[in-house]
Write a structure and sequence with these properties.
4 copies of one chain form a homotetramer. With 341 residues, the first copy, chain A, is an alpha/beta fold. Chain A is 38% helix and 25% strand. Chain A is built from 14 helices and 15 strands. In chain A, the strands form 3 sheets. Chain A has a 7-stranded mixed beta sheet with strand order 12-11-7-10-9-8-15. The first copy, chain A, has a 6-stranded parallel beta sheet with strand order 3-2-1-4-5-6, sandwiched between helices. In chain A, strands 13-14 form a two-stranded antiparallel ribbon. In chain A, strand 2, helix 2 and strand 3 form a beta-alpha-beta unit. The longest helix of chain A has 20 residues. The two termini of chain A are 38 Å apart. Chains in contact: A-B, A-C, A-D, B-C, B-D, C-D. Chains A, B, C, D: One of its GO terms (molecular function) is nucleotide binding. Chains A, B, C, D: Belongs to the Gfo/Idh/MocA family. Chains A, B, C, D: Its EC number is 1.1.1.18. Chains A, B, C, D: Keywords: Oxidoreductase.
Chain lengths: 341, 341, 341, 341
């Protein structure tokens, strides 16, 4: 029985607590949140959480706890990672580890020589659709990948306040797609070119960000990838991907609430894609934690280690530079500046 | 070069004239219609028809003409068939040959000992979807057929005047599905049970007919078939079929004008099925005539001979009796009474 | 907090225990099974079950327990229902209550004058697809229902031993579809006609049963319904439905594990329908228990009461008679004989 | 009755002759080809062509002929255009007018002050799918366009001999997509960035060309467009497009020969996209000629004038430069150099 601590009981922390409640080989001993209140504490108890607290250091100090889930605000991911590693806890860290590569390097450094299992929370790899797609590609069903296409559009833009602290669309939203393109291609990107615009809400532009983008990537295996992003899709959360190769094409499309189709005078109408990311990816969130628990239990590598957390950040920085300088940017250019390998 | 005469230049006669215009191995020498007028004559000329007339006997008397298409009103199908056979012409006869089995028997009798090629106009067998379905079944791709389902719904009911002379829904509309079920099963029906209702328009009921039906058939190969009919589908002309067998299922669905799909706040909407049977089956009409011409050219059997014209009429009569007597009716019961087989 | 007892910890009992573990307003106090063993007991404990036993009477005798789930073998459903009602427990009873209408009548009798909430386990009503379909129909989106079609095909036939005690396909398998047709039509059936066959496995025929059927129903609202069943679909568990009405058509199709589609030299291939009914309907099983708990909690009617358990049995008996006597059978004929209504 | 001359009776010339045979308001008086032979002449006759010749100048000299179709080899498009304009004939010219902008400018110059109708053969605009998509976008059904995606993949690469004289993939193949993106966006492109590769056949690379590309475009209306190309799709001719906008998304997908879907042990398999471009776009070829004839008949603008022929060539040149210099290239950069605008 793996004992876990959950740091941060906001939206995503709650999702993970619910997921762990369904596992037979793991339980949450302690959930911590600086804003812990009675309501959350009671809910946590009903989910089998033994103990709640306002101070995550209780978790780190508890010798019974094997691993921690860092679900607190983005700016705390890397410092708490460092503390948790120091305390000898296995770490599941929500994405991104940090927007600052130096801080990720500190985490990498801290992990060296330890037996700590570190997993970063790119949940989409555990989604039934993307998992099936990756498996089909890895199994060679479409031959050698040549063109990879990812469509990733949010149903609605975040608040302008959030936009301002988000690190920009590429590090906040596209970062998931950067991970996905690595997952599907089975290799890293070499170069990125961004064509982006501010079309959804002028306030996003005023905040210095973009909301619409088409991002072209050259992958190390020779494939060309393209990601298209929008911060607002009127029909819901649009999450599709397609891999084209020498023997054919594999593609996955959106999930909807039901298969209901109505044929009437206006046409033949099916349901919209699911709107809310938590609904869309609920099963994926459960599966990523199951994978983390299994990595601890069996003392084996997590499916998404700290380098899988680093690479999409480098890609995000390259994308940002491409946008600003309006030219293709090699990932190497960023890694060298950041003093990476 | 096969020379043809077209008898009847209404809607369907025109379709066939257009189809023949695209053939390289056939042409229409004469088109006849009691209501032939200048406009039609001119149109016919532009379609390469050499000659037009008010009297179809000119066609029968013309030694240059190899075959005739009988596209006149239903009540004339069998008498003109007899005349044409007597005149030594190959015959393409629109469905049904007759509602009266005795008259079909006369046609069968007249054909005996001749070298005349006779084809009946069940156009749907030549439709790209139904043809692909039949081929898949005949090739054994779904194993032994066990359940055959046909959905056949008209976009809107015919006029009440037409309903009154139509012979009833089973002989007028379902007759196509009776042919289709024979085509897909590759054998004849043994027994029919009808559950029908008058739900679309009370005037249809007042005229003694039904407009909605589910018809169950036991086929000679052991498969069970079911046809569902409606005289009015709000979303267009609904023409689907599915064959389920020991190794799987093969199904075909509707054609629409384009593959356009719009995703919006209301859902994900594709186009309706095509509305009009002439539009839906235009290519099938062309292909059936091509097959007729090829049968003449190569002196071989037509794909749909006079017995293929007879059987669906027997099925329609059985269906009608099942409806009136509210019990399953064996086809044999009808054939014996009609002195067949 | 509603306290429940689960009687029978076979496949379906376990599913319900898992479902209840995710509820915040209910828990399983005791799980009983004559074959209770250590392994099951341990599993139950991990699922939050407080106590396990070999004797279900412990549950009935426990004043703390509000309601019971009867998940034991079919022959025990009605006797344990009677005991549970006598003990004042709310009852969730797996389908069917009994194959013998007299015994169902005893349950109805026993419920009279009590405040006991009784729910029968027709899980499919809680499936996301069928629920969406029923809602669309009930909301009038397709107008007045005219033709209802249900396709229900199992992936593989049960063992011959099971077939022999199953009560026949209509009471064992089609019973779900009889419930579904009532759910979708929003009314009862008046008459049933069966065309059935033994095509899948001759041993099923030798056991006196059929494995393939097309069942036509006349509904009280005038609609015609048709169910097609097979005990073996090579491509998985086939669960579809379509309701056609005056304004259009609503249809639901199968669920698959993912939306993966592979385009290659052989065609464009998507995933098969999910194979296993527990996988396919897992969420529905959870939702039906949630509904049962809510009925207890709020002292309101269950969504599927004892009469909803009775009606499909009457339909099954009518279907069986139609099959044996090869004629349409009115439900009234059966109910009168059984002294109902 | 519009009288036409067809110059070049290769594959595409034949398609147009067949199309014209079905028109009531036009006919082919003369078909010319330097390699005219008996077989072609006979075939032409059967298609209603009055006269065949080896010398296209006969067509230009014939005062009865209203317009010509230039279906000869690419290098002759612009010189014959000039001759035809000089001869006062309306011109339908297959794409591209020329790879050399100077020569297109000569055609533009020659047209000035004349009443000649000039149409360039970008057939895809007349395809039922793309036409429906464009209409939906133009009608505002998806709001303001923001992201336009075109997938255009050939089933198999052309011969290396053809590759060498093709002008490169961008001018030979992508040129259709450049036209399509203008059609869908309703405006011109401002800037192009190419990421391309030689993945399909090394011989294509040796010939100095690429066979795989992702091309990003900034459109004048602010939308971002992306085209992905491959010279070889194992599953057929892949021709799709999607326009995403402020109110939703409109998309069109491939046509297949039938709607047949087979569900079996391996999955649920539909037909591949049609393989051959002539089959896929047959109706579009007919419709573009119908539009040309109507433009002549009604003395109105053709739907695709000489500038619509010029712009995609400029885009192709920009794409080529982007590929060679590995940077985004503004269309303006090319036009200025070519002395346009």
């Amino acid at each position: 029985m793996i004992k876990l601590g959950v740091i941060g009981t906001g939206r995503i922390g709650k999702v993970h607590i619910e997921g762990i409640a369904q596992l037979q080989n793991a339980s949450v001993k302690t959930a911590a949140d600086p804003f812990m209140n009675e309501q959350t504490a009671e809910w946590a108890k009903s989910m089998g959480v033994e103990h709640t607290t306002g101070d995550y250091r209780e978790i780190l100090a508890d010798p019974e706890i094997d691993g921690v889930l860092i679900c607190s605000s983005t700016d705390t991911h890397s410092p708490i990672s460092l503390e948790a590693i120091k305390a000898g806890k296995h770490v599941f860290c929500e994405k991104p580890i940090d927007h600052d590569v130096k801080k990720i390097k500190e985490v990498i450094q801290a992990l060296k020589g330890t037996k700590i299992r570190y997993q970063v929370g790119f949940n989409r790899r555990f989604d039934h659709n993307f998992e099936a797609l990756q498996k089909a590609v890895a199994a060679g069903r479409i031959g050698k990948p040549e063109i990879i296409k990812i469509t990733s559009r949010d149903p609605e833009p975040p608040s302008i306040d959030y936009v301002k602290v988000s690190g920009g669309m590429f590090l906040d939203m596209t970062i998931h797609d950067f991970d996905m393109v690595r997952f599907l291609a089975g290799c890293d990107a070499e170069e990125i070119y961004v064509q982006s615009a501010n079309l959804v809400d002028p306030k996003i532009g005023e905040a210095g960000d973009v909301d619409t983008a088409v991002i072209t990537l050259k992958m190390e295996n020779g494939a060309i990838a393209v990601i298209d992003n929008s911060r607002r899709a009127a029909y819901g959360y649009d999450q599709r991907a397609e891999v084209f190769g020498s023997l054919g094409m594999a593609a996955v499309s959106n999930d909807s609430d039901s298969s209901l189709v109505i044929s009437g005078g206006e046409g033949v109408t099916g349901e919209k894609p699911q709107f809310f990311f938590l609904e869309r990816y609920m099963e994926a969130y459960k599966k990523e934690i199951r994978a983390f628990v299994e990595a601890i239990e069996n003392d084996r590598e997590t499916p998404l280690d700290v380098y899988d957390g680093l690479k999409p950040v480098l890609m995000g920085l390259a994308a940002d530079r491409s946008r600003r300088e309006h030219r293709p940017v090699r990932i190497e250019e960023i890694s060298k500046e950041e003093g990476i390998g």
